[in-house]
Write a structure and sequence with these properties.
A hairpin with a 2-residue loop joins strand 10 (about 260-265) and strand 11. The chain has a single domain (about 1-315, about 325-350), classed as Beta-lactamase, CATH 3.40.710.10. It has nine helices and 15 strands. It has helices at about 5-15, 80-90, 105, 120-125, 175-190, 195-205, 245-260, 270-275, 340-350; strands at about 55-60, 60-65, 75, 135, 140, 215, 220-225, 230, 240-245, 260-265, 265, 290-295, 310, 315-320, 325-330. It is an alpha+beta fold. Helix 2 crosses helix 6 (about 195-205). The strands form five sheets. A six-stranded antiparallel sheet has the order 2-1-15-14-13-12, with helices on both faces.
């Protein structure tokens, strides 16, 4: 039996320095405080979190767990990858037959129609090269201009939230949560149903997950779909809302990705789509389709080069390692100590 005790001890010794209850010290919780006012506030619900937790699976079997692995906690931008999975479900159902198709061609009237935005394809949105401009539920794309994220090697061109000149869609990579929320809105219109319902039906229930799961939107993020009000959900918890899910369920989703979209012999997401999610973006080779890649070892030098990751603020990581047939989930780990955790796990893999 592989011994992960050193990795677990490292994680437990380095909890993220956020308060566990957002109401207790709101000035030091979350990522919205870095935004220029008046956008530096929560727009949707949040809730207290647990401590450091995690799960490790090898060859489809859980071999280690710590903390509260069944506690449903906010998972921040790990939810971005769930949007990519939903796009894959749409592809399988014939709703999104070609990721190179322009979104405006299929979904006019939802924010992709002007001269700049109508060139944007689904692939641009999935790889974060869309350069979409506008406001999504009252938040302008400029709020996340020049955003600095830890695994982006490119230095910001200006201050966070300082508007910059836009590039042609597909020619510039930027991590931008407003654009992700616009992708989520497009997927909502594509399915014509609430995305949390589709995700539970197509992904969670088939893999035996979903206990305590919820995916919530901003208080004012409602649109009319087929004559009824439906809440659009964000691809993270930057301004509140987002996905609450357990570490064990995150590991089950990671296992689905590791297995190429198959579960119990049934294809839940097309294998070709899962394969494309882990292919490098031409202008940002550290990024796939809403996933982080380790092709050159720059992200985590100790991890295999085939490793890929879902990453969320607050120290939320789901690591898929095909080289060791492993899925590793760790939550609420101080990102400053994430490389140490990965190194301990990699050493245990041998």
């Amino acid at each position: 039996m592989t011994d992960f005790n050193a990795a677990i001890a490292h994680a437990q010794a380095h909890e993220v320095p956020w308060p566990r209850d957002p109401a207790a010290d709101p000035a030091h919780w979350g990522v919205h405080q870095a935004d220029p006012p008046p956008f530096n506030r929560l727009r949707g619900p949040v809730h207290p979190r647990g401590g450091v937790s995690g799960v490790i699976r090898i060859n489809g079997r859980e071999v280690a767990a710590w903390g509260e692995p069944d506690r449903a906690d906010l998972t921040y931008s790990v939810a971005k990858t769930y949007l990519a999975l939903l796009a894959g479900v749409a592809n399988a159902r014939g709703l999104l037959p070609d990721p190179q198709e322009r979104i405006a061609a299929r979904l006019p009237g939802i924010g992709f129609d002007d001269a700049h935005n109508r060139a944007i394809t689904w692939a641009h949105m999935l790889e974060q090269t869309s350069e979409w401009q506008g406001s999504s539920f009252g938040i302008p794309d400029t709020v996340d201009h020049n955003r600095r994220v830890s695994h982006d090697p490119k230095p910001p061109a200006g201050a966070k939230g300082e508007p910059r000149a836009l590039h042609a869609p597909g020619s510039y990579w930027e991590y931008n949560d407003v654009r992700i929320n616009q992708l989520s809105l497009a997927l909502l219109h594509l399915f014509g149903r609430p995305l949390p319902e589709v995700f539970e039906e197509a992904v969670l229930r088939p893999i035996g997950a979903g206990q305590g799961f919820r995916w919530e939107g901003y208080d004012d993020a409602w649109v009319e779909i087929a004559g009824r009000p439906v809440q659009s959900v964000p691809g993270g918890s930057h301004w509140g809302g987002g996905v609450s899910i357990s570490a064990r369920d995150q590991a089950r989703i990671g296992q689905l990705l590791l297995d190429g979209g198959l579960h119990a012999g049934q294809p839940l997401v097309p294998a070709a789509w899962i394969g494309r999610m882990q292919q490098p973006c031409a202008i940002a080779p550290f990024y796939g389709w809403l996933t982080w890649l380790n092709r050159d070892g720059a992200m985590f030098p100790e991890a295999s080069r085939s490793s890929w990751f879902m990453v969320g603020a607050g120290g939320n990581y789901t690591w898929i390692d095909p080289a060791h047939r492993a899925v590793v989930v760790v939550r609420w780990l101080d990102p400053a100590h994430s490389a140490g955790f990965v190194a301990h796990v990699a050493k245990a893999f041998g």
